[in-house]
Structure of ABC transporter ATP-binding protein:
Amino acid sequence: KENILEVNNLHVSFKTRNGAITAVRGVNFSVKKGNTIAIVGESGSGKSVTAKSIMRLLPKQNTIIPEGNIKYENRDLLSLPLKDMQKVRGSEISMVFQDPMTSLNPTMKIGKQIMEGLTKHQTLSKKQAKQRALEMLELVGIPNAKSRLEAYPHQFSGGMRQRVVIAMALACNPKVLIADEPTTALDVTIQAQILDLMKDLQEKMDTAIVLITHDLGVVANMADTVAVMYAGEIVEYGTLDEIFYETQHPYTLGLLRSMPNVNASKSEPLIPIPGSPPDLATLGTGCPFAARCPYTMAVCHDHHPETTQLSDSHSVSCWLQDSRTPSDHAPEIVGS
Ligand code: SF4
Ligand code: MG
């Protein structure tokens, strides 16, 4: 399968009163048609900034993208004229946010909102648009869809509202869906239903999904490929199995050990990762995870690890996996 979306060496900085802060540094990933990539990490790791860069939704006044490109069907989205980008947005690449109200207008009937999105991108008669809106509501499992076309967002529960947003996002049959913590605000049962729905629709429509989440449980159920982000970088990248069963980065291992229900053996205690992510404004030259890593070596404090390719699909940025690290400095790391 071919890559539908490629992010190459993306760097994103923000101008602040105290100088520039780099939120994303050298991020690379790709997603194939109909596949799902999960971007995982704690808040502040640069996941949402990466997602918003793809959609060009970052505030223009204070965002700097000094390097990198984002290839979608052989075009660089970062250098696309705004007019063309607006065409891509919604019709070819759609985004779903954690809070469904980000995408919904509280004063407009649901049916009208879906129809507006449709007619913005396609030439449909009013009747055709209404028919398509109805089909989409039925597809995402809204009961009594026909009468619900006339309802306002506040008349839906949180889970139903997120279904509506997914219906809107997929109405134009986009090739890529970017979902930023789409189920984080929902309770566990509803969460599972929404994820099932997304998987179902993905299969039907062959949509590629970029799933942003802090929850490895969600990743396990959804992803083909996983990118683990820390302090603006991808520290480990691989297939779902590589990330879960051949874990190489101490941060990934920490995430796995701190997540309930991921490990099969229930007797294993959950161990939270001590400390908190570094302040991006004062990052030193060493490994950004050094202050929290149980395996930190002398080299880690001053020297940033390079990316080591472990297989065609698996890579990691850690001195433990670098062949130049003397073996008496590198403790054996045991997978989860
Ligand atoms: Fe830990 Fe060093 Fe690897 Fe960073 S490079 S994750 S500090 S062992
Ligand atoms: Mg976020």
Notes: Residues 250, 287, 289-290, 293, 295-297, 300, 305, 318-320 surround iron/sulfur cluster (ligand 1) (CB under 6 Å). The chain has eleven helices and twelve strands. The mean pLDDT is 92.
